[in-house]
Amino acid sequence: QKEVEQDPGPLSVPEGAIVSLNCTYSNSAFQYFMWYRQYSRKGPELLMYTYSSGNKEDGRFTAQVDKSSKYISLFIRDSQPSDSATYLCAIRPGGGNKLTFGTGTQLKVEL
Amino acid sequence: SQTIHQWPATLVQPVGSPLSLECTVEGTSNPNLYWYRQAAGRGLQLLFYSVGIGQISSEVPQNLSASRPQDRQFILSSKKLLLSDSGFYLCAWSGDYNEQFFGPGTRLTVL
User: Fold this and answer.
1) Closest in A44, A98, A103 to B102, CB measured
2) What per-residue string of b and e applies to A36-60 under the rule 16 or more CB within 10 Å gives b?
3) Can you tell me the mean pLDDT for B46-72?
4) Do A97 and B32 touch (CB under 8 A)?
5) What is the pLDDT averaged over residues B92-108?
6) Residue segments in chain A with a per-residue pLDDT below the cut of 50
7) What is the least distance, in Å, from the CA of B104 to any CA of chain A?
8) Do B94 and A44 touch (CB under 8 A)?
9) Is the pLDDT at B43 greater than 90, yes or no?
10) Is A15 helix (H, G, I), strand (E, B) or coil?
11) How many CB atoms lie within 10 A of CB B35?
12) For B75-87, what is the mean pLDDT?
């Protein structure tokens, strides 16, 4: 079993839709949770960072963590064509510097 | 503000040739530095990380090596490239907090 599982997609939605992207993880030692957005042929860009269960909102983006279920989500409201990218979850244990990444979900928002 | 640079952006090299990729960070001191490789359809694989000058930790035994000759400079090298070394190479840095910030990447094709 992989430490972090993420559906690769592709996920195609119409403009304005609410998008839900998800990751599951297996190690309860993971304490810090991040979401990155990666446009084609570019480096990943940090979108959201959280370390506690519950929701964290930033504009159209909401990160949700459920540590009891080992499940994290990223919601995008009012999705735009510019949101078309690959979204990577990244998780870190309580100690150390190393992140474990999901394989990424490719999202396409269509006009 | 902090910025991270990588060069070259694109590189095509023959099998058996040497490699040197450079990463520099501006606007911070004593960063943690990381080299990742991203293969098509796969997640980010951590290759090396460094917590200080001359301190390198290798995550995956392979044909590559890393060096940190200065506080904000990280170099990825190979003496003889293999076909399997092709991929998208990403440098990242982190500071006192948990987030990692990525550079624009170098796309390496070994022919």
Assistant:
1) A44
2) bbbeeebbbebbbbbeeeeeeeeee
3) 92
4) yes
5) 91
6) none
7) 4
8) no
9) no
10) coil
11) 24
12) 95
